[in-house]
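hiii, so i know i said id send this last week but things got crazy w the move. better late than never?? heres the sequnce for the chain we talked about at the cafe, plus the structure i predicted for it. fair warning i was half asleep when i ran it
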Amino acid sequence: PEGTKITVLEDVITTGGSAIKAATRLRDVGYVVERVVAIVDRQEDKEADEFMESVNLELHSLFTLKEIIDAKNE
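okay and structure toks below
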């Protein structure tokens, strides 16, 4: 129902554009979207973090690309 809190889940986030588009559409129909959870954050110059902040979204990432690469190289 309208007013329900929703979290947007992304597999891989680069700029945040797709997640913000989804959050905006959900907000437009009455859902409360405050955060995006990404499985992998590619960390492209912190672009996604800044973009999310500009539209009042928290970004939480389970892993960064660097963490995955470092683990592979161990």
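btw Residues 5 and 32 are 5 Å apart (CA to CA). thought thatd interest u
miss u guys!!
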